[in-house]
Amino acid sequence: MPPSLTRVTRRRAFQGAAAGIVVSALLLWWLLPLGDPGQSGRVTISTGARTGVYEKYGNLLKTALSRDLPRLDVDLTGSEGSWDNVRRVATGKADFTIAAADAVAKYQYEDRPGALRLRGCARLYDDYMQLVVARSSPVRKVAGLRGLKVAVGGEGSGVRLIADKVLRAAGLDINRDITPVGIGIDAMPKALKSGQIDAFFWSGGLPTNHVNNLSNEFPVRLVEMGSLVKALHKQGESSRYYRAAVMPADAYPAAQRGEAVTTLAVANLLVTTDRTSPELTEAVTRTVIDSRDHIGTKVHAAQLVDLRTAVYTDPLSLHEGARRYYLSVKP
Fold first, then answer.
1. pLDDT tens digit string along 159-199?
2. How far apart are CA 122 and CA 318, in angstroms?
3. What is the rounded end-to-end Cα distance, in angstroms, of the chain?
4. What are residue 204's DSSP bridge partners?
5. Which residues contact 55 (CB under 8 A, 6 or more apart)?
6. Global model pTM greater than 0.90
7. Cis-peptide into 3, omega within 30 deg
8. Strand partners, 222
9. What is the pLDDT of residues 239-288, one digit of tens each?
10. Which residues of 19-32 are buried (b: 16+ CB within 10 A; e: fewer)?
């Protein structure tokens, strides 16, 4: 064979091999899990009370992270709620958590351990304050709870934090004017049905399954709280994160009977600290936003996670890794 033909044949063989490598690489990229497979190690996410929304969201987020970051081991730990979650992350007992903005602000205002290290990753969805009574109850306003047994959540819960402030806004003291019962949402409906309590406070996304199930089994009403927002704002810095809101009439159809209810809302944040690397934080933030629709099929409130508002993590500064993510997807 002439030397010129040999060179042509070799060049074509090399080009064919190169093309094969490119095709194989593209196929491999397509088949590999999404995200950054380079992230490895172990992280702990503090969730919330058993069977609550935080716990359910945490379980679904763990599944999404396992898909996107297969080399990352994710541990979930339960908690009493927002206040407990903030404390755990700030003191290094967890790497990520969900917490309401008011709990974060209070932790910062009181200069608790590790408060300066807290950082935000995303604004997620709003919690709505819910005051549930039996339909036959005479209670029409929060002030009407005077002298009654009221479930206010555990000591470390965001429910307890808000209930205390809402009661004060209505002129009541949580320890003197009511009998506070420190149980969670998993026990509140049964206690109301059996008459062990007269009412319960709950703060969560709409609808909350426990409240919805109770309303379908037992006649209940939701008490308005939106009229207290001005009195709440007078209580200090951490109270400015509450806003007046409306629970639409179809949130709990059996309880509301076609009527919307005014209440209070506060944003939930995905929280970490400056201890967490920018690379890991960027990857986790990406998964949180990308998995919104999937998680939202099981946790309805998660459908409200919005890329346009997720960046607003007040009162927390945005983590550098989260900032990198938002810049990478900016139109």
1. 999 999 999 999 999 999 999 999 999 999 999 999 999 99
2. 8
3. 57
4. 128
5. 47, 48, 49, 76, 78
6. no
7. no
8. 132
9. 999 999 999 999 999 999 999 999 999 999 999 999 999 999 999 999 99
10. eeeeeeeeeeeeee
